[in-house]
Design brief:
337 residues; alpha/beta; Alpha-Beta Plaits; TIM Barrel; 2 domains; four-stranded antiparallel beta sheet; 18% strand
């Protein structure tokens, strides 16, 4: 951490500050320039509150050098984390494909989609039971019943299931869920993250609509600080000025996050664009950039889907796509490393 | 709602769609052009799911004409809503000033700040007990104890208290809180909004970091749909590319929201900028633009504040500011109407 | 175009407006609803000024249905445009790779890089002579001398050359330049676009830092309206809140633009990220998404490049990358269509 | 400037780098930490190219401490610059109001608006002759004839005139123009800025749609580096995710820029919102925040304006507003300092 002092700072206050840092085990290197004095703070600065320091009268600016996350940091954990979900391994060079409808609508629907995506090579089944909707007047999901139907589909197909939680109070319903998803709008719902940190179950953490990489990693850090290190990160498109697509997929998030962290990074091409006709090119791009997996919305009848129909692809389209994605993964394994 | 059909749509599907709309009580006006057919949907379209319609094979695009919010809409409720908090009236031409520290730190601190801001003319006391922090390693607030200290300060000064909730499970602790605040990061925590909708207590709803006016109003609608219409909206700065300030205060939110909704609109100049030296000019701007109130961070010792010190002003600065704000409100009452 | 009238509009004004539209050959379909009247305007609305109509007292809102660009619109020109540059064909299923240094620095440098990228299979040579720099104190390019050196490299290698223009007054220097590049900051320099529209020479038009797809296409339309239809569009990253990368590559721009327009679409992975270590994964992603080409910064000595060194890759890295990109293009040709 | 070295850097390269810095008169302070070495560069670093340094193999990151602008920097020029335009003084505690139509349309129109705004107390007349329009099919301004008509209005009213230039080749037409405006889309048209730097005439420089404060100041620096220090900065709204308004006025730009630079800062409330009904509240907010002036679109017949009618106010509205703005300026002079 670098602290830039104001011009002509009160020297007694500077000495107090340096003394306080020494007590915390931080070494301080002072560079006195013509117009400014700079302090270089060396040691474990992740516990220093940057806001506290900025507030000091003698301080002009503070810049962090070291990342504020530890558990998620590849510097301290160089090996890829591989998250195991039953027989499925996420990360470590595997390509994991998660597929299924936006919402669970009926037993028939979810079982039929599950069978179909399994036949096409999907590794896990997704389906929304609790649905965050912008309008209180839109379909809010089947909730507990939706989770029950997912477990039926799992029983039929042996596919592990991934579904979204919206509030820590729903946790008892998630016992048979294999991967708990945290949606983009809850990425900084810190109470929920803390609750998930106390579990020993994989969490799929989606990037917030306007979140930076560091903010996403700090949210992962919340979960990991509680002892749960089975976190899968998910790029799902960020908000930009472009309105033709629902969001803008940030494909660079894949190689950058994989550099900053050891956690697996997957991509959601369906929410990234909000348009079924873009799912194939965006999926190909994500895999070519080195993604560890994809989570794709597949619906047997998108026209009558109760939510997000415009971004769902049909099982037969998914079938061809899944095959091509594995070929690209094969080809690009070298390029993205 | 306007539905633009694809070129040469399947006529049977078009007829089915129109029949389905008629069943829902929607009138359909058809404009057949050379290259495109446009359907004008007339009636109560707020219950129509725009996504469902977009997903139809025959549909190229859908545009909403009517706002998707009802209870919050000024068109259906032309009179200003005045939220009553004890003797304080928020909205309806009053200027409400809420002041206090970012975090409650101790009885001495909160009582002293409360007395001081009361003497300067503040109408309510703010103070954080549950603190949403980006890092799990930062101070997370005194939590239940913080609320207890706020009630002590209220007992001493008779100022109503405003404090933030982070999860619906904390509600039992908020019995003596006068106004429950929902932070920017929880603006779309829909489970929390629903829980607050079932109360009959004022809610101060902050705009999300990247939320549009419509999204803010839809979140208000979540609360109001549950029967709680005591909602105060709060502009607190949005994220932009500028990093010199923590956020960018969108002062136009004030006159625009007051046009779209009957709910009171206040501004938080402290979080908007994240810099104490900008609190005064931003507060003046907000009042000049017609804000119904302000929520300002005031700390007796910003250098040692446990959070957000850099944006807190001292009581003596607040004192002069509060007076000037009332003068501007007096002068501008006509201009912003 | 859809015009939504205010409630209870002045009927005489409505009739005047409809008469004026009829004079312009526009048919008007009127939908009278309970609370609002909607006019559907049918005909060639691209010449109607949406601002003029919005300003009418009787008008609440105007929404465009038809795209405001014609010459660039795939609807009116379904076949891919193939831009011919000597023997090189850009678009129409080809993968065009343009490579070279950010700035032309010396004869030795540009000739050596040109030979090297040609050997690796590049189809054109890039190199900056006029350099738009944020600071007046940074290296501004060799200007006329830079163009002279590029023509030397072209003479040596037979690679067509691509270089940026910053002002119409520089045009006389561009006689021997094969493709004139318009940089992101000049995307809406309309006087420059008009000047380029009067040429019969290919223009590589980069997307502005915060431009939408429609704005990019309207800038292409400026050039095409002058009679020059040899326009190559280039995605080069947009500004987002993420600062780890210089910009954020919007890979969805590729399939979306190719749907909206018949013009070729290439990608600049070097400016998109501003980091050499991301050039390979981003290039792979762009090609997997269906890009018609790439423009990549290659420098023989990035550490001593006079500008943008951090984003340049070395010739030996480019060599391996170019081969892989052609393999991905082969594999994905089907996926992105 | 702070340079963070990679872990275990090549020591010979580090020594070379330090030697090179010494040659440039830069002192280097080295802080060796456990995991990282940090170099503090002290001296005039504004001439160091941050990109060059970032590209070095031994460098992990570089952070600038000192602002990269000099002539525009208040640190080196603490007194307010007052730009004199005839008898009008911009900056230094004055409130300058510039008013007039978006486009010059006819002699009658411009003279009539000029007389009217003069009577209401405007200090200068604005009017567009060269119009940057997104579409090539929209009205492009009267160009040379527009400037001629402006000078007629000036002859009639003695109001100095402000009008926009779009290309350096138009300069000969601007001889009788008092203040040359650079539009938002040309803020980084560096060739144009250099041409203006060689003049000795005031320039009104508008902030780009997505520009940061530093970028705006660097563009001012381009003009000032040429010797022309009569630059007036103008906040005119930035692009955000909100589409209800055309742009989002960043009112904090006023106090922040006035802190960073000695140049006067004015605000354009008309382009900021794109809606005439927001001009009054946004103008009041800007003045309350300490703006040195405003540039407001006033049209005698907004419904028939050839461009930007929706954001123009009528002369009678302007009349009341101008008076109120002077009252607010009087009241707030203390608050924003």
């Amino acid at each position: 951490m670098i602290v830039i002092l104001k011009q002509n700072p009160n020297q007694a206050q500077v000495n107090n500050f340096i003394g306080w840092l020494h007590e915390k085990g931080i070494e301080v290197h002072t560079s006195v320039g013509i117009s400014q004095t700079i302090l270089g703070l060396v040691g474990d600065t992740s516990a220093l509150d940057i806001n506290l320091i900025s507030a000091l009268d003698i301080v002009e600016d503070v810049k962090r050098i070291q990342e504020p996350y530890k558990n998620a940091n590849r510097k301290f954990h160089p090996q890829d984390t591989v998250v195991k979900v039953g027989d499925v391994q996420v990360g470590g060079g595997n390509l994991t494909i998660i597929a299924g409808p936006c919402s669970v609508e009926s037993e028939e629907q979810i079982v039929s989609v599950a069978r179909s995506v399994k036949a096409s090579g999907a590794n896990m089944l997704r389906g929304g039971a609790f649905k965050p909707r912008t309008s209180p007047y839109s379909f809010q999901g089947l909730r507990a019943e939706g989770i029950r139907l997912l477990t039926l589909a799992k029983a039929e197909t042996a596919l592990p299931i991934v579904t979204e939680i919206m509030d820590a109070s729903q946790l008892p319903l998630f016992e048979d869920v294999d991967v708990i998803q945290v949606g983009a709008r809850n990425m900084q719902n810190f109470e929920l993250l803390k609750a998930l940190g106390s579990l020993r179950k994989p969490v799929l953490l989606k990037r917030g609509l306007s979140a930076t990489y560091e903010e996403l990693l700090m949210s992962a850090e919340y979960i990991m600080a509680g002892g749960n290190d089975q976190v899968i990160l998910c790029e799902r498109g960020i908000r930009t000025f472009e309105t033709y697509t629902r969001n803008t997929m940030d494909v660079a998030a894949v190689p950058v996050l994989k550099r900053l962290t050891h956690l697996p990074v997957i991509v959601d091409p369906s929410h990234s664009a909000g348009r079924s006709d873009l799912v194939a090119p965006l999926s190909c791009a994500a895999v070519a950039a080195g993604a560890d997996g994809l989570i794709i919305e597949v619906h047997n009848d998108p026209e009558h889907a109760l939510c997000d129909g415009p971004q769902s692809i049909r099982p037969e389209v998914f079938d061809g796509l899944a095959e091509r994605l594995r070929e690209i993964a094969e080809l690009c394994r070298g390029a993205s490393k």
